[in-house]
């Protein structure tokens, strides 16, 4: 299993499964240096050219909507529509939408990254697992008002791109803490504290605040 030396996530560590998402994470991590996140204008498309069609940029609005400002052709092809201007949270169940809204709010307020696993299904009943990586960007000032991400299929079925995904089933969600983001980490637990309490639960899934500090 691939283990990144550049981030710590989850109570037991988090692994980015798709190689292209690992590439995007490394590029983002190198670009930011010692800063919490890179500037939006520093993203150079030629540096991620091989996966550009799988990437997207989200804009954060005050009412906690996350609209696509840009979306690659393959991402749009997976869903059979132009995504620009659409809310990233559209298409999920109410329960999943609540969990994902909490996750993205953590990204833009704490400077973390996020991983989302889901199964996409077509009208014909075809299914495919996907992994989405989301990372914060600074557009202006010092706040995270943009996010860069990529949605990658973890399988390559024959129908992918020909039959659009019409329903989404959330299967995993994780927070990624970059190694030098200690000033964003929650404070150490007080002596005598027991248990880790999730920000939100969705069935067998739980979204936790923070990651390992070792």
Automatic annotation (TrEMBL):
Domain of life assignment: Bacteria
Q: Which InterPro entries match?
A: DUF1457 (IPR009922), PAS (IPR000014)
Pfam families with a match to the protein in the record:
PAS_5
The name this protein carries in UniProt is PAS domain-containing protein
């Amino acid at each position: 299993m691939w283990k990144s030396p550049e981030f710590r996530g989850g109570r037991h560590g988090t692994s980015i499964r798709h190689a292209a998402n690992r590439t995007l994470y490394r590029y983002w991590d190198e670009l930011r240096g010692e800063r919490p996140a890179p500037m939006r204008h520093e993203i150079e498309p030629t540096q991620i050219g091989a996966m550009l069609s799988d990437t997207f940029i989200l804009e954060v609005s005050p009412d906690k909507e996350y609209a696509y400002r840009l979306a690659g052709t393959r991402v749009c092809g997976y869903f059979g529509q132009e995504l620009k201007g659409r809310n990233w949270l559209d298409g999920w169940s109410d329960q999943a939408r609540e969990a994902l809204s909490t996750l993205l709010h953590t990204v833009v307020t704490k400077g973390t990254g996020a991983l989302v696993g889901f199964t996409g299904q077509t009208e014909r009943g075809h299914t495919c697992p996907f992994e989405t990586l989301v990372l914060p960007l600074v557009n202006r000032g010092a706040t995270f008002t943009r996010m860069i991400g990529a949605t990658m299929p973890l399988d390559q079925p024959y129908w992918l791109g020909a039959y659009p995904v019409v329903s989404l089933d959330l299967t995993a969600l994780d927070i990624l803490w970059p190694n030098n983001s200690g000033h964003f980490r929650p404070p150490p637990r007080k002596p005598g504290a027991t248990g880790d309490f999730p920000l939100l639960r969705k069935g067998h899934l739980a979204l936790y605040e923070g990651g390992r500090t070792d």
